[in-house]
Specification:
alpha/beta; Rossmann fold; two-stranded antiparallel sheet; about 35% helix; elongated
Length: about 200
Amino acid sequence: MKTRVLLLCCTLLLSACQTTETLNTWSDDSQTHTFSKVLVMAVLKEPVYRNLLEQKLVDALKAEGINAEAASNLYPDNDVLDEVMTDAAIRQANADSVMVIRLVDTRKETVYTPGTVYVPGGYGGRYGLGYYGYYGGGYSAISTPGYTTEYNIATVETTVFDAASNKRVWSTITETTETSVKNGINSYIKVIGKSVTASGLFQ
C-alpha cells in the first residue's frame, strides 16, 4: 500500500510539471473591430510539427467558433513562406487577420525521481523475530528503482496581426513543459485556444 501511495505521489508530481502556462499577454487597446477569419502560421523548422501545430490549433479555434485556416493547407510543401506567398495565402484564405506562432526559446531539464523501498512488517516490526528474522526480512523488501525524466521546455510567442494594416493587435507568451514535442503541442493548444477566444478579437 505504501509503495502504491509513493508511486502515485511521484506520478502526480510529474504530471503537474507537464503544463503550459501564460507568462505575459498584450493587446492593442485601440483595436475596436473584430475579425471574421484568421490564417494560422507556425514558424517551425520541422514541416511535420509545423503542419501538426497549425492543424490542431485551427481545429481548436473552430471548436471555439472562430473561423480559421492553416497556412500549411495552402502551401503544404513549403518550409518557409516569403512575403509574396504569405500575401497570396491571406487572399486565398479570405482572411482578415494572421496568427503567427513563433518559438522563442527551448531548453531541457532533467528530473530525478528516487526509488522506493517497502519492507513488509515495517522497519522495526521484525526486531522481535530475532537476528535471522530481521536479516531475512531484507530479502523480502519490495523496491522500485529510481529513474530520470527529461522535459522539453518551450517558450512560444503567439501574435495576431491585422491583415489589412499589418499591425500587431494581440500577443501572448507561453511556456510549455513536456516530455515530447507532440505532448507539448497538445498542451499548448489547450491553453492558447481559450486565450484567443477570451481576447474578443474574433466574431
